[in-house]
Amino acid sequence: MATRAALRYYHHCQRAARSWSCTINHNGAASRLLSTPSSAEQSQDSGKLEEAEPVETDSQDRTKLLVLGGSGFVGTNVCREALHRGLPVVSLNRSGMPSIKEPWVNNITWVRGNLFDPNPWKEILKEVSAVISCVGGFGSNEAMKKINGDANISAINAASEAGVKRYVYISAADFGLPRFFMRGYYEGKRAAEAALRSKFPYGGVILKPGFIHGTRHVGELQIPLSLIGAPLELALRNAKGLSGTPLIGQLLIPPVKVTTVAKAAIRSAIDNAVPPGDLDVWGIIRLGDH
Ligand SMILES: NC(=O)c1ccc[n+]([C@@H]2O[C@H](COP(=O)([O-])OP(=O)(O)OC[C@H]3O[C@@H](n4cnc5c(N)ncnc54)[C@H](OP(=O)(O)O)[C@@H]3O)[C@@H](O)[C@H]2O)c1
Question: Does the beta carbon of 212 lie inside 6 Å of ligand 1?
Fold first, then answer.
């Protein structure tokens, strides 16, 4: 019963997404938010809206947000932002809890696991309403293709099989660089994006930031990437028009603050009003800063 009702409500939300936002809250209940429909839309949809009451989702146990790579630079910020919004968070990465000495770290459930082998941890997916993947990396072309592509595709497949509704992948902007430059990195990213579009046509969101700045923790060290990133972001933020300039345009993609990326990722994970598809850096800024 609850499943059918939730599905009906979910499809209703899809239809009404231009004007209404439907959220799966962390108690597993679906609810409506943010009503600014035009009067025409209101009269078209009002009958359906009246009959759509908040209902339980397909499983009352789907209460959690799963952050893949929650111990990394972007992942820690995503975890912190999710806690700030009162969401119960599980992070999965190979080494478990990071060495950051901040109180919020104790409020995350840290699970050790490898994306290449979801079998040991895929049970967690049954308790999850949304996944945010912050797993990626650099190295040889082969290694980059595997970690950015294969590892993420394996997690996307596992989440889809487990019935997870929304999936957010932190990918990367294409700077229009020659194809041989970081070939494996971009091949991996594009392969994972294709898998996400195919497995999550209604709930897959791909964030494509350029350089991300903030404070990166490396062991006990804190690297203040914002010293370079913040002024560059300020200079390039309002220069969207320049990104169409032939040859150099894409190099002018502004850096973005890691907290902005984290907020945009969380919104994409919990808010059905965020449509599936790609979010470029300007989309990330719009979503993350408001
Ligand atoms: N930083 C930037 O400027 C930037 C810009 C654009 C896009 N991005 C993208 O944003 C994402 C996050 O970047 P980041 O800088 O936060 O990376 P990061 O700091 O290197 O974090 C990577 C995370 O992935 C985990 N991980 C790596 N391999 C794994 C595996 N096989 N199974 C499970 N977990 C694994 C790591 O933890 P363990 O090592 O413990 O497993 C870590 O938590 C990446 O996809 C990156 O390409 C970053």
Answer: yes
Alpha helices in 39-172 (DSSP H): 39-51, 73-84, 141-145, 151-161
Any atom of ligand 1 within 6 Å of the Cβ of 116: yes
Same domain flag for 27 and 152: no
Q: Which pLDDT band, with edges at 50, 70 and 90, does 241 fall under?
A: low
Tokens of 83: 């806690």
Provide, rounded to the nearest whole percent, the portion of the chain with pLDDT above 70.
Answer: 75
Point out the ligand 1 atom lying closest to the alpha carbon of residue 113.
Answer: 33
CB of 160 within 6 A of ligand 1: the answer is no
Can you tell me the distance from the alpha carbon of 169 to that of 90, in angstroms, rounded to the nearest whole number? 16
Q: What is the pTM of this model?
A: 0.80
CATH number at residue 168: 3.40.50.720
Between the alpha carbon of residue 44 and those of residues 11, 19, 37, 282, 288, the distances in Å are 16, 11, 10, 32, 31
Longest dimension (CA), the chain: 58
Using a 6 Å cutoff on CB, does residue 136 contact ligand 1? Answer: yes
Residue 204 makes CB contacts below 8 A (sequence gap 6+) with 166, 167, 168, 169, 196, 197, 276, 277
Whole-angstrom Cα distance, residue 213 to residue 226?
5
Q: What is the pLDDT of residue 21?
A: 32
**Domain boundaries, position 121:** 64-208+256-289
Place of tokens 């799963």: 66
Interval between CA 148 and ligand 1 midpoint (Å): 9
223 with 119, same domain: the answer is no
**In this structure, are 222 and 202 located in the same domain?**
no
Distance 69 CA to ligand 1 centre (A): 6
